[in-house]
Structure formats: C-alpha cells, structure tokens
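Support request from a user on the community tier.

User writes: "When I paste my structure tokens into the form, the page sometimes reloads and wipes my input. The last time it worked, I copied everything first. Here is what I submitted, just in case something in the input itself triggers the reload:"
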C-alpha cells in the first residue's frame, strides 16, 4: 500500500523545517510601493521587481479600466480559438518595434514564454547549452523537451567554448545556447557579444532571457541584445511584462517564422487562455510610456538610484559582489545568518529578502536588494542608515 498522503506531505514539510528552509510569506497590505505596508509594518521595500514603479502608475490604471469597459474582464478562449483580440495583436506589433525584431509572441508569463520557445524549437536530435545559473523557468523549459543538454560554468566563455568544441563529434540538427541576460541573484550581465561570436563559429542559435533587463537596460529599456548592439545577430529574446512593465506576461521576440511555428507548437499558447484585456491594455500603455521622454527619465532615475545605493553599501564595507545592475546582493556567508540579517533589517524598517542555499551557494547567503526609480533619495539614505546600524550590530561590517 502507498503511504497516507497527509503523512507524505507532513514529512516533507518537517524536512524543510529541519533544514531551515521553511518560510512564511510576507503579505503586502496595499499597493506595491517604495514604502509599503508589509505584515502590518510600514517599511522601505527593497524587494520588488517593480523597477520603474509602473504597478501603480495612473495612466496604466486608466488604460486597464478603459479596456475593461470596452472588452470585458476576460477573453473566454485560448489565442488560437477565439481568444485573440485586436489589442493582443497591437501589443505584439508594438513589442516587436520595442525589441527591434521582426515579430513577438506574447504568453501568459515569462515562465511560460521560456517553455514556449524551448518546447517549440527543440526535439530529440537537438542540443541545448545552458549557463549553470540560468533561471528555473529555463531549466524547466528544457526539461519539457527531448533535447540533449550540457551546462557551462557561469558566464565562463572558455568553458562555453569547451562545450561547443565537444559538439563537433555530435550530429545535431540545432544547437541552442541559452542564458539569462541579467542574473537574478547576482545582478551581473551575460557576455552576449562573446556568446554570439562563439555561436556563429560553431553554428549555434542564441537565446537570452531578459526578464530583469526589459525596461532596465538598453535604450528605452529594450534589453541586453540592444544594449550590446546585437539586434542583427541575436536569434531569440524572451522578456517579461511582469517586472519593469508592471503587469503580468511574457513574450518571445524573434523572427516572423519562429513566431508562426510557436503559434502551432507552443503548448502554453495553444492550451491556456489569453491575457485579460486589462492586462494587454496596461502593457500597451507601459510601452508607450517607456518610449517617451518621461519613460527614459524613469530609467535614468532607476540607474541614478542604483549607483547611489550600490556605492553607499560598498562604502559601508558590505560585500556587494559583482552586480552591474539595480539588483545588489549583500553577501554575508552562511544562509541562516542571511535570514537573520533580513529579519533584523525588517524589524528596523527595511524589507530585503534573505536568500540561502539551495538558491545560492552554501557560503554565499545574502539579502538581495532591488532599488526602483520611485525610491526617493530620503528612502535610500534611510535604508543605508538601517543597513549600517544592523550591519554593525551583527558584526557584518567594522565598527
Ligand atoms: C522572473 C523571471 C522569469 C519569470 O517571469 P514571470 O513573468 O514572472 O513569469 C523568467 N526568467 C527570469 C530570468 C526571471 O528573472
């Protein structure tokens, strides 16, 4: 007889508790803001992906409301049956212009966008080569395929070259190299120019997941590919509408032909309902904003805040790792210590998520901070004071 289901569940929960990995979700009591009510406390919020503050932007809220009045609250079907509205197609055209690609295809989330691209393009005679620190949605997307897989050391181009060299003896239909654009735990950027060069040399296809770069890097936030001037060379980018864009959704930016193939093959596209019109209209308004002077100002402010906060943390003596983006880790070592640091920061008025093994290496426990364009200087100065105070108390920095 199999075991009683309740016991199977409970023993796994107990295991998580024994390993110190069990956690309680923090609850937001209102809007996602630079200062938010979290678990009933008003704190400076350094943990959202709301890079440009668009989740509460008035013109986006208005666009969502107007779309509800015109189109209703849902689409009532998957895209390929009768769930594609004119605004869905309009968003895809605008996204293609934003990403400087021939076409885009929008999916329900960034997570499903990876599943869509990988699942539609890879079969049993293909190989995928993946950075060891790639996002879980890439890893799961790959698992949905029958392709062979190889992993290269994080951002290590000689290791990628070594893996590519090995492929010479294989007889693959497609070799696809996939990487995050900006890595979500360390905030470092993938070396796309070198990846592109190597891909050309070995006949490989290039794919980047730009979830943390969309709306952040490149002119008007168009992402890492444009940032590096690779529009003409790069094959596929995945982006999210859930982070800087402020709503929800994901997309693949690619050739028209790949879009058409995904329309026929991508399982999240074929078998899951399309976005409600309010989401699509919100994203359209967000893209209009991003491409305006005001949008560029928001991005500039995001980077000003990033430089200010990152240099402030470093000046206090914290280890902020190798970040090049608004994601700044404060690395403290042991996971339990990182969790304790996060809790004490919270009690003093700052929410910065603690992150431990297995999400990061055992000795690289950290709190992760993300500043946004809408944090004021005063928010950030106050946060730095709190980091200093708690950091000294815990002997993470010198007195
Ligand atoms: C957040 C994230 C995703 C998932 O995007 P959603 O739109 O939230 O599903 C995918 N890839 C990376 C690298 C991410 O950081």
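"...and here is what came back when it finally went through:"
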């Amino acid at each position: 007889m199999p075991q009683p289901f309740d016991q199977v569940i409970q023993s796994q929960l107990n295991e998580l508790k024994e390993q110190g990995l069990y956690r309680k979700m923090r609850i937001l009591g209102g809007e996602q803001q630079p200062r938010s009510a979290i678990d009933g406390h008003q704190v400076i919020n350094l943990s959202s992906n709301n890079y440009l503050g668009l989740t509460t932007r008035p013109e986006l809220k208005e666009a969502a409301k107007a779309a509800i009045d015109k189109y209703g609250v849902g689409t009532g079907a998957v895209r390929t049956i009768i769930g594609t509205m004119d605004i869905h197609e309009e968003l895809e055209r605008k996204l293609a212009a934003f990403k400087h690609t021939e076409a885009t295809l929008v999916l329900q989330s960034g997570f499903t966008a990876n599943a869509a691209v990988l699942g539609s393009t890879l079969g049993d005679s293909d190989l995928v080569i993946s950075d060891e620190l790639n996002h879980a949605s890439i890893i799961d997307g790959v698992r949905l395929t029958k392709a062979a897989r190889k992993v290269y050391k994080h951002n290590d181009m000689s290791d990628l070259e070594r893996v590519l060299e090995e492929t010479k003896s294989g007889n693959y239909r497609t070799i696809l190299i996939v990487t995050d654009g900006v890595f979500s735990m360390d905030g470092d950027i993938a070396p796309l120019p070198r990846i592109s060069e190597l891909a050309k040399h070995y006949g490989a296809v290039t794919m980047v997941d730009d979830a943390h770069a969309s709306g952040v890097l490149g002119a008007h936030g168009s992402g890492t590919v444009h940032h590096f001037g690779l529009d003409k060379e790069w094959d596929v980018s995945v982006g999210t509408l859930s982070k800087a864009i402020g709503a929800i959704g994901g997309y693949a930016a690619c050739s028209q032909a790949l879009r058409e193939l995904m329309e026929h093959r991508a399982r999240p596209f074929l078998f899951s309902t399309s976005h409600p019109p309010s989401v699509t209209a919100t994203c359209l308004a967000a893209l209009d904003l991003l491409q305006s002077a005001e949008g560029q100002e928001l991005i500039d402010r995001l980077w000003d805040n990033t430089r200010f906060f990152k240099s402030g943390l470093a000046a206090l003596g914290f280890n902020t790792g190798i970040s090049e983006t608004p994601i700044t880790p404060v690395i403290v070592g042991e996971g339990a210590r990182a969790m304790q640091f996060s809790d004490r920061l919270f009690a003093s008025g700052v929410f910065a998520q603690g992150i431990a093994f297995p999400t990061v290496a055992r000795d690289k426990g950290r709190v992760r901070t993300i500043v946004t364009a809408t944090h004021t200087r005063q928010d950030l100065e106050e946060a730095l004071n709190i980091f200093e105070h708690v950091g000294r108390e815990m002997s993470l920095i010198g007195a």
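Agent notes: The reload is a front-end session timeout and is unrelated to the input. The domain at 19-48+294-393 is CATH 3.90.1150.10 (Aspartate Aminotransferase, domain 1). The CA atoms of residues 112 and 268 lie 6 Å apart. Escalated to web team.
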